[in-house]
Amino acid sequence: MTKTPPPVILTGDRTTGPLHLGHYAGSLQNRVALQHTHEQYLLLADSQALTDNAHDPEKVRRNVFEVALDYLAVGVDPAVSTICVQSLLPALAELTLLYLNFVSLARLERNPTIKDEIRARGFDRDIPAGFLCYPAAQAADITAFKATLVPVGEDQAPIIEQTNEIVRRLNRQIGRDVLLEARALIPRVGRLPGVDGRSKMSKSQGNAIPLSASDGEIEEAVRRMYTDPGHLRASDPGRVEGNVVFTYLDAFDDDREAVAHLKARYQRGGLGDMALKSRLTDVLKALLGPIRERRSELKRDPDFVMDVLRKGTRKAQNLTAETMAEVREALGLFDLRAS
Fold it and tell me: What is the pTM of this model?
């Protein structure tokens, strides 16, 4: 009896800096949980990082190692998950160029994720072409690995939708299903706000808590968190909706019953912000302490980390090249071997 192969996961991160709690809530938890039941590929997206960091390629190069450290520190097991470097997979660039012929400029500009990112970066019309083409590049990444499941934050769901549009258009052109559609796996807390409560957590906006944060940095970040400006005294009724501390407790506190009790107390009055923040501080210290220690250990053994990247990238090169060859043949592109 033939054994059914496990579903394939493709996910990754731009290498612009070490990862933070937003990445952990948005995707890393799911990656660790699913790696033993799925075939998982994690992409260190240095090519995509260059789309708005071409002025500082050293930052992008340096953070390939830093993001790899974060992956391993949170529990990604290289024995069952493949970690690879995007810029070393030439088939991804070939597929991106090919896919750009099957999507319009207007459709790229309408993508909600891209629109939000353009606004956040203040590009206006001075948009790097590579940045605007991000959805096509993401489609290349996902389809090259034959992934059917992509763990992402809620804000990235439109990218998966556009990937599937490109897949359907290519398959119609070919006349059969060569490429696979993918499904976004969005966690319970799909979008984690920054500590300022004004936008999603982001390294560039300085409102993030890195996975390597010290206890002191955690305490300072939680102290700065937005709660309810109308909750001036512990006895005042407070609002749970939009309260960043409760959002973080929902994301990271495993005692759901206790969190529900805290919400009820806060809403009717009788619970101060400092007591609430004290609980969150303890929760985050318990979560990030082991990750920080493991990261420090790994950083002292760079040869191990580099070996993980070499092996993973070699495996990914072979797989993505096979997909590119299948697409070329299916589309009937010119091939010297057929002469």
Answer: 0.90
